[in-house]
Amino acid sequence: MFRLLLASGLAVLFSGCASLVPPPEPTKPLDTVNPKYGYRFSNLQPGPDNSDGLFMVVAFSGGGTRSAALAYGVLDKLRDTPIRWNGLPRRLLDEIDVINSVSGGSYAAAYYGLYGDAFFDDFPDRFLNADFQTELWDRYISVTGMTQVMGWSTNDRVDLLSAILERRLFAKKTFADLLERQTRPLVVIHATDLNRGSDFQFTQDQFDPLCTDLSSLPLARAVAASSAVPILFGPVVLKNHGGRCGYKRPSWIQPTLRGPQDQGWALRAQRHATVVDSYMDSSPETGRPWIHLIDGGISDNLGLRGPLESSIARGGFAPLLKRLGVKGVRKVVFLVVSAEVLPESGIDQSGKAPSIRQMASRVLDTLMANISFETQTWLRSSFHYWRHEARELIDNPDSPYEGQPDFYLIETSLRDIADPAERKTMMAIPTTFKLDPEQVQSLQQAGRTLLDNAPEFKRLVQDLQ
Question: Taking a C-beta distance cutoff of 8 angstroms, is the pair 305, 299 a contact?
């Protein structure tokens, strides 16, 4: 990654005072908002081996190829886990309803969402074992690449990343192609709204306030935004058409903005409402005609803060399930896969001031680690509330639950590796787009083993036999 940082620095030096202006994404405006249109959960049906009764959400963290390899191992383990549900045998993999992903995790999630089981045969050669980083570097120093990087055209460095993603993984596929599959899981790629510092999700629900059609957006562009590390890459820029399609402010926003100011949950909901509200004005004078998106890990390296904010804003997890059109839920599963890195960097072994590279790396790692810790703590406390909420709804005919549902919070992290030496080795694998084949295989196996050893996963599998 340092070579990429060096390339970025050279670009700044040689371009002098000229500013790099990323091209706005050629998305199409919406004439009107239609809940039955676009890539959103309510427009995806359960597949033949998927059901509402077992509602399963998976989250893949950021972390370059390291996180993508770990995600592969987890998905592979889910594929090999037989269960019995509604009296029928099936794979636990097929019961996934939603995949949230950030940065490196988005490479795996988007490819699986687009190609299904072909992911297991194709993804290792196309990405995990490929020298993605050298290809990116070569494009930087090529004539075409330098033309783009130096600001001699309107293209930005993130365009190079998008182009390679198209060539290696996604071709010209768009969110319309994801929607054509018509079945779950919904893959939610997360980026960060640079101006607001908030989570941004590539779903039509997120794009409705912008009066923008997500279907026309290339998948490669969304994944590039999700992994557009600041300084290394410029932002992906979206044209905001908010206020021009008849989108109506959701009923929960106004009371949320007027709610109490002395409770943590209310402040979270108000922050979420303020961001959504800001998208509905695209006028140059008072609004936000452009939206700039960067690496999702800056706001949430697990891809869960957005869903948690939505559940709070709508009054709980049950109202969120009802909004999604889910009924008869008997089990709720959240599987969180974290490819966090080793917190030690060696800078405390010397009295010398850290280098700029060390400082930048530690600041970014610390920021993401702190946000991830807070998000996981928030999710755990939410589970306690959701269980209580479900008990209160047992006799409610409008409840999305069937009786008292079981909740499972499965957390897998490289930090959970039992052997200290192996744990240190695995957590020291760098955040990069090039890993040795042995490192890739070790991460894939770690994903399988960590999931297999997770207590809540064991409980879930036992309950599904």
Answer: yes
